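lol ok so funny story. i was supposed to be doing the assay writeup but got distracted and ended up predicting the structure for this chain instead. priorities right. anyway since i did it might as well share w the group, maybe its usefull for someone
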Amino acid sequence: MKVVLAYSGGLDTSVILTWIKEKYGAEVIAYTADVGQGGEIEAARRTAMATGASDIFVEDLRQELVEECIFPALRANAVYEWYYLMGTALSRPVIARGMMRAAKKYGAEAIAHGATGKGNDQIRFELAAYALKPDIKIIAPWREWDFKGRSDLIAYAKEKGIQMDAVPKPEYSMDANLMHVSYEGGVLEDPWAPPPEGMFRMTTDPEKAPDQPEYVTIRFDRGTPVEVNGETLSPVELVEKLNEIGGRHGVGRVDIVENRFLGMKSRGVYETPGVTLLLHAHRAVESITLDREVHHLRDDLVPRFAEIVYNGLWFSPEREALQSFMDSIQERVNGRARLKLYKGSVSIDGRRSSKSSLYDERIATFEADDVYDQSDATGFIKLQALRLRSFGAARISEGE
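and the output, tada:
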């Protein structure tokens, strides 16, 4: 039996690798997806081979992540429960798809992951895997073994001679990719406790950010960002550039208690500097290019779209159907937005579109104009008030 294991190189997945070999007598291929998490990649490569993987497959998925998940979600203005930009949820579909490619390459019958039985990631990985390969077998050790926590894993690692660089008990767990870093667990499980000093990796403490504001201009072509400050950039370069700019000013931190798909509430702390800038800029360009009713209809659907993505249903027919709608209305979203960044805040400093703008200064002006007859508003208001006047008269006649 061959198993492709989603492998990070940490204690959990190193123990899982050894446990699967022992429990199932399987050959384990360690699959490490480069989604922009940084220097952990090479460490994972070394640890996997030392721990007994038959092979390690490292795949650069950064471009797929940005082009096929981050930007489509941006075009939909997808935010879960009005705060969370879903950096973790958006990375799981491309990782799962990469694992399916690895399973095909190595002829593996099963995949495995280190997500716990309480988290969202088990759902996201497995729903994606079943959608892509309905007959795939899935091994989820945290739902099978008798280990209760990190101390049990450390004891097992020592017993089996699994060499780890260091295994101190962390204050919290962390997951990083090109889009964000998420923090949860440990000291963060108390929703009243503030994040520990020095926890954040991508963003400067807003109080220590530059004392002068910085301005950044982002251009969109059909709802997709293509340019920063006049420079055309590849998708990965663009996100990296905005991460640097936003992070320098402490932009993109959120601390929320979210509703997990499994039914529990969970406290999560996130930093998402670049995509926070993109969301503000995207909304600014939309404000002058989208028709009012189309704009409002799309906004009605944003919470549903975000919930679908958060719950791990990226490869579902409902997400694909909603995505088609979201993308279709972006044809007019062409233009630039200028943002002002200052000590953790983002504000719109300007927006314009040379070819798609529906904003007409001749109509909007408070000065004299020749295109809008203000007396027309009288009939409009009276028609709008008709039902209210009828309802009011009925209440008065009833003595209210």
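The chain has a mean pLDDT of 94. Residues 175-290+333-352 form a domain with the Argininosuccinate synthetase, chain A, domain 2 fold (CATH 3.90.1260.10).
back to the writeup now i swear
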